[in-house]
Amino acid sequence: MADRTGAAPGADTAAPLTPFTADPALAAALARAARDLAAAGHSPEDVAGGPPHPVTAALAAALPRPDRERGYRVVTGLLDGFGPVGPTPPHWSGPQGEEANALDTGLALVAAALGDLYGWANQQGGRLVHNILPIPGQERAQAGASSTTTLTRHTEDAFHPLRPHILLLAALRNPDGVGSLVSSVRRVGLTDAQRAQLERPRVVITPDDSYRPPEDAGSWTAVAAPGIATVWAAPDGPCLRFDPAYSRLPDDPGFSRAAPWPRRPRRGPRAPRSRARPARRSAGRARGRPRPRRR
């Protein structure tokens, strides 16, 4: 039987990870609880700050945690109890309909079952469940509001030492079936020499453009920040902390040769991809347990 925090002993970690299909009764109970809470005026913030809802215990018992070798877990069917959420809002702040509000609350319940739900005061107004959708004028940005460029693979909130252990992503509008790219440092095969270089605290990582900078700074590049290690050892394997588009690499040939990424990170626009990104929700960040977002 698989450990809820990782792969089963002896499992073939090179094989595709089988999605976990939620019990329809659990999906129905989640939607019912979320609608009741939303109808009573409760928000995701109320879910995070209030007493545990009875449905969270059932969710915590049923849902597997991410596979730590691969770094992700696919869950299907859990949101099947919700109906259509309507058209994509023009902005992350809305407006949106009642079913979308209920879904936000449902994602917060799921996150609360897996971890301690939190957000950032200077990102999307401190919301715990984010609308991640295309916004006019940000088509080529290296942030969730882009639509004609591919985001570089990155560690979520890599700039912060208290970044989330779990990030929930729920695809709501994806008629073209556009997928998400994921990768794991544990499957790269770094040499001892590469790890020794990447474990040095040499990379400065700043918040991305979706975070409001301090009023006295103007931009995050003007804020002094220490260098950090991009790779380090955990008891069960190496871990990675990196965001190519928002990192300043050292002028160090030895470090550059050790890095597994192909070229120096940059902030500028990249080649457009053939299909726009789907509108999703990020349903929360959590530590020891998750942080939500919708995309």
Strand percentage lies at: 5-15%
Main pleated sheet:
5 strands, mixed
- Helicity, in percent? 10-25%
> How many helix segments?
6
Q: Give the overall form.
A: globular
Taking pLDDT < 50 over at least 5 consecutive residues as the criterion, the unreliable ranges are: 1-11, 263-280
Radius of gyration: 19 Å
Please tally the β strands and state the result. 11
Overall pLDDT confidence = 81
In short:
The chain is an alpha+beta fold.
Written overview of the protein:
This protein has 295 residues and is of the alpha+beta class. The protein contains six helices and eleven strands. Strands 3, 4, 5, 10 and 11 form a five-stranded mixed beta sheet that branches. It has a two-stranded parallel sheet with strand order 1-2. Helix 1 crosses helix 4. It is globular, with a radius of gyration of 19 Å. Mean pLDDT is 81; it is low at 1-11 and 263-280.
List the helices and strands and how they pair.
Elements: E1 20-21, H1 24-39, H2 44-49, H3 54-62, E2 75-76, H4 98-114, E3 116-118, E4 130-132, E5 166-173, H5 192-198, E6 204-205, E7 231-234, E8 237-240, E9 247-248, H6 253-258, E10 279-287, E11 291-294
Helix pairs in contact: 1-4, 3-4
Features:
single chain, 11 strands, alpha+beta, 15% strand, 295 residues, disordered N terminus, two-stranded parallel ribbon, globular, five-stranded mixed sheet
